[in-house]
Specification:
By secondary structure, the chain is mainly β. The protein is built from no helices and eleven strands. The strands form two sheets. Strands 2, 4, 5, 6, 9, 10 and 11 form a seven-stranded mixed β-sheet that branches. A four-stranded antiparallel β-sheet has the order 1-3-8-7, with no helix packed on it.
Length: 119
């Protein structure tokens, strides 16, 4: 019913930039916190950034000053602007949203998008 779909991943050189999108679809009453997470090969999934319904943003230390999370509620989309990318940022990036519908309050995950940073 409710889906989140990530896009915008790709291959970029060290120091480059990408903007990831997390678009929600379905019958949605309200989207609360939305977070970006990443998982590199052989590593556990790591929290990257979260934005609240009131647009309060928090970040893991390793991306502070380089990544910016934002949201466009009219488009039901959350973005992750990634600048000054490093090889250590290589991972599958997934978004997670806390979403209220008429019937449920649910934590929804997208399918993920691959980000590869070459040296």
């Amino acid at each position: 019913q409710v889906q989140l779909v990530e896009s915008g991943g790709g291959l970029v050189q060290t120091g480059g930039s990408l903007r990831l999108s997390c678009a929600a679809s379905g019958s949605i009453f309200r989207i609360d916190n939305v977070g970006w997470y990443r998982q590199a090969p052989g590593k556990q999934r790591e929290w990257v950034a979260t934005i609240s319904r009131g647009r309060t943003a928090t970040y893991t230390d390793s991306v502070k000053g380089r990544f910016t999370i934002s949201r466009d509620d009219a488009k039901k989309t959350v973005y992750l602007q990634m600048n000054s990318l490093e090889p250590e940022d290589t991972a599958v990036y997934s978004c997670n949203g806390q979403i209220l519908t008429r019937e449920n309050y649910s934590s929804i995950w997208g399918q993920g998008t691959q980000v590869t940073v070459s040296s």
